[in-house]
Structures are given as structure tokens and as C-alpha cells.
Amino acid sequence: MHSNKYFAPVLWGSMFLCAAAAVLSLCIGSICISPVGIIRELAGGGMASNIIKYSRLPRTLACMTAGAGLAAAGAVLQRVLANKLASPSIIGINAGAGLGVTICCALGVLSGWMLSLSAFFGSLVTVALISVFSGRGGISKTTVILGGVALNSILNAASESITVLNPDVSIMTSEFRIGGFSSVSASKLLPAAALIILALIALFTLFNELDILSLGDENAHAVGLPAKKYRALFLCLSALLSGAAVSFAGLLGFVGLIVPHLVRRLVGSESRHLLPVSVFTGAGFVTLCDLAARTLFLPYELPVGIIMSIIGGPVFIWLIIRFKGGHSND
Amino acid sequence: MIEVCNLSAGYGKTEVLHNISLSASCGEITTVIGNNGCGKSTLLKSIVGLLPIQSGKIIIDGADTDNISSGERARLLAYLPQVKGVPDICAGRMVLHGRFPYLSYPRRYSRTDLDIASSAMEQMGISSLADRQMSELSGGTRQKVYIAMALAQRAPVVMLDEPTVYLDIGQRKKLAETLRSLADSGKTILLVLHDILLALKISDKIAVIDNGGIAMCESPGEILESGLINRIFGINIKSVSDNGSIQYYYEL
Fold it and tell me: Which CATH architecture describes the domain A4-323?
């Protein structure tokens, strides 16, 4: 009954994409090592093993974690706000996290946990502002998005002001503002990865609640789901996911918007299908973009945010044109 | 059974319903009628807990709604709202979510839930549409999916706000038969209908709301005899006996 025949192959495909991207990211770089060579190096502890252990492995894990977190956050926001334009980068959640990190840097606090938590609180405050805005009667979901766009601009302006007034912060956050993984370290990654994994586990037990919420408040209430409470919970989880990802990956745009869009075309909107495939696709997409960013112009490296926008922008426009046969209520 | 005792409710500081008392019994179809904006949907929303009540008490099957959780209430009371969107979901999954009040760990619907949802879809004649997206369905078919979702709740009390909207005349007749069989099986059915003739035909009891209060709550025959409907709606409803069955009509 009501199965999606494409779900299983697409899920396997996204898992394969994710695994292949991870292997390529570990193998390719300033020196290329075969997959077998990687295992041999890690076991043997040669010169290349340090590159793998201290550079490529944390970086690959960071790409996968950030991609998974941002794609899941986008999928949740689009479902909760019933608007396909919603994504952490568009409605200001990423900008809130960015402001949190900028304030943290300005105060000279640079520990991994503090960066993750400040990014989380920055995005949480943004989500709270959006919730207050969306909770007011008579405001449409589109207005919420427009309000989020305005909030995004205000928060970015606040971050910019701090960096202009405090040039040290500007140096510390320059890569952060474009988004990239070149300076990622285990101490920054681990706390954020722990938060993302916890949020994903919570989300994966709440598929039905997320779908019921998308049926509208009255229908959710009719089947016993307290809509306001769960909407707040899902917004907090998306803030946690994107805040944690932003804390080490910087302000990466597009992942949270484009990946759920693409995946929805393949497996539909139901959360039990959309979320797992988005997580793997997001992880694979960011890892491949990072691989392109650090290998296309060797020995130079582009910030992954630039590559992502160069690839993501046209792909997104293609998606809109290719699948424009939506419905008036979309 | 639903008992509404001295209920006052409305939106914000505006009181729409003043000190209303009403009871809907098991095994009966009770229909609420009244002019547009008189507070019919407000009454149902207050009973289901969508609107905070300003004073009074609501008791569903012996349970005071102030003292039960949202899940317990959904197991006692199925509710079809008047205004419904076009959700991005397939019809079968939508109906299955009617079983949400019974969902427990590991947060997956059981075989029983799937069977009950299938049976509700069969009851509404939409079994073949399980895999179709709601956005691909006509307004009438979507309405049937929503009703099937409410039926899948298997609650002893069923409240439907304008269930006949978008349904053609044949589907209205089928829905009336379904509601009668639900009432005969012992369920309490509370409806809001704009179709007065259908209300007169299928209801055991009709509650007429006027000026924020219950103007009358009696059997269809008594309501018609009182002339209240004619006065409130400004029409002239007549009845004829056709082979022992009473048919209603009004002159335009």
C-alpha cells in the first residue's frame, strides 16, 4: 500500500554516491593514493598516513557531516513551513549561526564546543524570531519566507559590522563567510558532528509527526498532534543541524535548498523517504564539491562555497525549468 | 456521547457562542445548522480543543476534555475540519495518519493500522487511489480521503464539519448511508451542514444556532413544525410523504 517504487533504488544510489565521494575525497589530492594504498598507509603509518589521518579524513568527515546536516535541515524547514523556498541559508538560520560564531570570535573564544554552541544559539534565536513571526495570525507561509529573507539581511549586516570594527575577527572569519573546509580540525568537528548525529537520530524517529504537521494545524490537532509544540521542536532541530554545520563549515548556501528539491523530485515529499535520501545526497554533494574545490586549480584551492554556488546555481535553475509542471498551491 | 455544558467560546475577546448547552447521544446523528457565521464551526472547534473555551465544560464519552491529553482526545473523537489544504502527500499515507493517535514505539504503523486504513478507504470507495498524490485528486475525491482519515481513527465520536462539500449528489447519498451505519453501530455523530434538506433527512436531532445560542434542539419533524428554519433562513421548506418516506423541498 502506497509505497514509492523509486525509493529503494534512489536510497541505494544516494548511499553509493556518498560512499564513492568519501573514497575519492580520501584518495585524490596533492598526492593521489589508491583505496588499497590508503588502508596500507593507515596500517603502516608512513608519510602519507599523516596526510590521510590529519588532513583528508577529518576534512572528508566534515564535508559529509555538514552536507548531511544542512540537507536535512532544509528538508525539515521546507516540510514544516510548507514552502519549497525555505532553507537555512534563505530564511536567516545560517546567518544567525554566522553571527553567533562572529560574536564568539570577537570575544576571543575559539574552542570547538563554544563555536558549535554559539552557532546553535545564533540559529536558535533566528528560529525563535521566525516562530514568533509565523505564529501571528493571518501571516502566510510566503510572508514568513520574506520575513526570513529580511532577517537574513539584518543578521549578515550585524556580522559584517563586527568584522569591520574588529579586523582580527575579519581574518578569523574570512573563510567562514564563504564556507569551506580547509581549516577544519577534529576539535571543531567532533562537537558539531555529535550534535548533528543526535539531531538526525531524533528526526528519524519523528517522520510521522513531520508529515502530519504538513497537513495543517487543524488536521494535526484532530489526530492528537500538538502542532505548535512540534513545529517549535522541528524548527529547533533544524537550527541545531544547520547551526552545528555552520560552526565548522561556514556559511554554505544552496545545500539546504537544492538537495531536498532534487530528492523530492525523485522520491516525493514524505519524510520517511525524503530525509534519509537527502542526508546521503547532501553528504555526497558537499564532499564532491569540496573535492573539486581543492583539486581543480592545484596547487591553489577555492573555498567550497564558491564551487557550490557555481554548480548549485545552474543546477537549481535547470531543476526549476525542467520540472516547472508543479501545482498552483506549490 | 458529547455533552456541552454552559459553553461560551469565541476568538480572542470576541465571544461568538454564549452559554450553550447541547448533548449528542450515542447511536444518533446530531446536526448543527444555522446562518453563515453563526458559530457552528466555532462550536466544533471548541469541542475538539482547537479554540480555548471561555467558560463551561465539555464531556466526551464521560471524560472531561480539560483532564485528557491530546492523544486520548483523538482516540475518543475524530474530527474533520471545514477548511482543508492540499497536502503534499499520497492519499493512502494520509488516511493511514488517521491511526496516529494509536502509534506507539517503534513509531511505525502496525499491520492492524494498515488494515484499518485500507478498510476506511474501501468504505469511502477510494481504495484504488492509495498511491495518488492529494494534489492530483479532485476536490470531491480529496474530501473522501479526508473523511476516510477521520473514519480510520475508529473513535466512538465522529464530528464532521461540512462533510458534503465538493461531493456530488450520488456521493452525498453514499456518505449519508455511511454516517447512518456508523450511528447504528453505536457511534455518536455530530455534523455541521449547510444543506438543510440533507440535515432534515438524515438527522435524528437538529440543533439550530441563532444569535450565539441554541435556539432549538429537537427532532427534524419538530424543528420543521416550529417554523424556526423558515424564519432563520427566510425560506419555506415543505415536506411530502412518498411511499411512507418523508421528502423535503423548498420553493425558490
Answer: Orthogonal Bundle (1.10)
